[in-house]
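Dear colleague,

As promised, here are the two records you asked about, laid out in our usual form so they can be pasted straight into your sheet.

NAME FIELD: protein one
SEQUENCE, THEN STRUCTURE:
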Amino acid sequence: MVMNISSTSREVAISVRNLVVDYKNLRAVNNISFDAKAGEVTVVIGPNGAGKTSTMEVCSGVRAATSGAVSILGFDPKKDRGKLNSHIGVMLQDGGVYPSARVFEIAQHYCNLYDNRTNADELVESVDLTRQKKTSWRKLSGGEKQRLSLALALAAKPRVAFLDEPTSGVDIFGRDLIRNIVRQLAADGCAVIMATHELDEAQRVADHVLMFQSGQLLANAPMTELQDATGQRQTLEDIFRHLSEKSKLQGEQ
């Protein structure tokens, strides 16, 4: 049974109802429903193969759902992708950048795709890559690539941002920077959906938590209320272990 706790009344930017995603004989996502709101950071956590990436891909329009309904800012992310392109930002684990392209060239190209675009110099500066402006993608460190990928997802000044493992391979200073950017996005009214395996990072930025296991939601609740409901001020790791064990016991009954 999923733990559902509603949050405060903000505009719903993402609405998912009865989402199912199948791959041949595997059901990756099994009939899940949730909302994500503008001005909040919704973190998506769970083990490998839990359905996190499949859900993110459907919501961002990269993959079609097997069944169910998904609405992003009132549009279908697959059918209405053209209408949504200038309003959403997507950071996937695979950067998909031409290896010999330079940092500023990449940023400039992405900014030129949008009418309501960010200045390329400001975009590069926002992720502390000004000194690497003339460096090619292939020569960037792993953390620098992550920071640039995040910047590219924000080129359109999105109303909804999908961030898949944004702090993976990033050092402590880069994590601080990314965390501040994520919080500022939410403060500016963006709906941020962030998938991560790093529960400490998730807990630092989360307003709302979607906790996945085996294609289903273990929890769908505001961070503070989830902590209160499962034991005062537990960590996300403690909460996940508690709900996972509870789910297993219920399944055995």
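NAME FIELD: protein two
SEQUENCE, THEN STRUCTURE:
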Amino acid sequence: MANTTDLLKQHLLFCNLSDEQMAQVGRHSRIVSYAKGSHLFEQGDAATHFFYLVEGQVKLSIYSASGDEKVIEVIKPGGTFAESLMFRDAPYYPVACQMLLDSRLVSIESRAFKLLLRESVDTCLAMLADLSKRLHGLVSEIDNLSLHSALCRVASYLSAQAPEQTLEFDLNVQKQVLASRLSVKPETFSRLIKQLCSDGLIELNGPRVKVLNPNGLRALARSCSQDMESFTDSFYLSS
């Protein structure tokens, strides 16, 4: 089985570190495994580590005072999360992290890695690029939630998931989780999927989705984003 440094070298954030630096990261990292349904941390827990997902699937969620859940992000293998808290010196995790599948992760001590960043400009730039990409995604999500219909949000998600070659993929995220991620109720999500099927845009067979009319689905998704492209561009130019 691969050790922590072998696993971390596969990720852009760590591939530019020297052998000595990787060994230092390894001394402050460990591989952890969690069963489906278990929690890695709760909202408000002390934020001492960030994580690299090797296998499985996890969700990051926030909860209202009444207990309602909003899924912020679904992390897939190869993804990292909670690293931005290093730069804010945030004492607590602002979200909860739960396993959607049996998962294996590398847990990295944030304070030790922050000290290491002072020695590696390339790693700093790689982390900045990754965080900027996520910021762009969050701005796009605010755009979607504020101005676009639920149908547009579902169409945009499906269009983004479909491989260009086969146009077929599995909805490998639980319906309730995906609905929360898109800010729609599960029953609304099911109704919209049926509508897209009736319109001849997709075909659904269990978890398997086949895009029948890729141009039509992309056109529906694009119609949701064109109105706010100038806003998004101006946001980044002024940031």
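A couple of things worth noting about protein two: The chain is about 45% helix and 20% strand. The radius of gyration is 20 Å.

Best,
R.
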